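Molecular record:
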Amino acid sequence: MGASVSTNGGNGKNGRKKRKRWIVLGSVTLALVAVIVIATAALRPTHTIEPDKLAAVEHGDIARSVVATGKIEPLTKVEVKSKASGIVEKIYLDAGDKVKTGQVLADLDKEQLQASVAESRANLEAAQAAQQAAEASYQKNLVDAEGPDVPFLKNDVDRGHDLYKQGLIALNVMQDAEKNYQLGLNRQSSAVRAAQMSNAQVSQSKAQVAQAKAALDNAEENLRYSTITSPMNGVVLSKDVEVGDAVSSILVLGSQATLVMTLGDTSEVYVRGKVDEADIGKVYLGQEARIVVESFKDKKFEGRVTKIVPLGQEKDNVTTFEVRVSIQNPGGELRANMSANAEIILEEKKSVLLIPEGAVIFDKDKNASVEIADPSETNGRKKLAVKLGITNGVKAEVLSGLNEGQKVILQ
């Protein structure tokens, strides 16, 4: 009985091992089949177009344009510099403040300038007094130079000669008359020379008076210049000095003089941009433009081309032409030095059929077509020939071949 039990146990173990092997083999086989089925399904071509690859044909506005990129600049900009040198004592305006012509912007310290005016006025008064004295001396010498008593003395000599010949007077009386006449002539000659000298002194004194008056005018002018006023209506773009700063005169240093403030008229501004030579032939004066600035991304400002510089500039083998696009800015929204793109409109159409340019296919002959979803086609797509109008780099106008609401496939 012990031998029988041993044999049956061994057969049971072998059977269990065979069943385990078959289970493992079956599981592996099922897994392989599943992998094959999934891989086959994954590799099988699908004709379904994903929604984000479709774009609707829709009505809209489109414009063909060239873009001039630049900075917003005020129509008029003035750098205010002082005609007088001195120390800034007061500043009445700050950047952003509106200003009118003649309005006081700043004052320089006037103490030294006022002292200079007082000194110059005293020098002028002294020169005028010297001139009056010289003129009085000249008038006296001029009278003496005419010798009013000489004719009388000459008559005395002539009469003395006659009386002496008649024996009516002594010789010494006649000689006294001659002596007095000669003395009169000498006095007259001296007076003539004195008159000539005093006349020169009068001329010199007049020159000194003129010089003193010019010095006074200059001192008074410097005093007036110490009050710096606005030369225009506009807004303060920048304040470039503070109280206590030293200011140099533009009359002395010219363009190197101290900049006090920068003013600008921002009621009208412009974009100074550059246009490629390939497009400049399509740009003309008065042409409409739309301006977009970084600060107002959702707003477009209307403008017009007001200047086209005739001389191109070449850089890196690319020639561009400077173009100015002016914009009315009564509200002052556009500020100086804002970055801006001026879209100069070459052609514009309203309410036309539009599709994305990314949906357009061109053949070798540059014929345009698009694809639409069509499940009946082998690849799920159908090609339609279209005729295009203007494009702007993003959208294209459809003249024929599509209807509003159709969806085209983005390539």
Summary: Confidence is low (pLDDT under 50) at residues 1-8. The first strand starts at residue 54 and ends at 56. Residues 171-225 form the longest helix (55 residues).
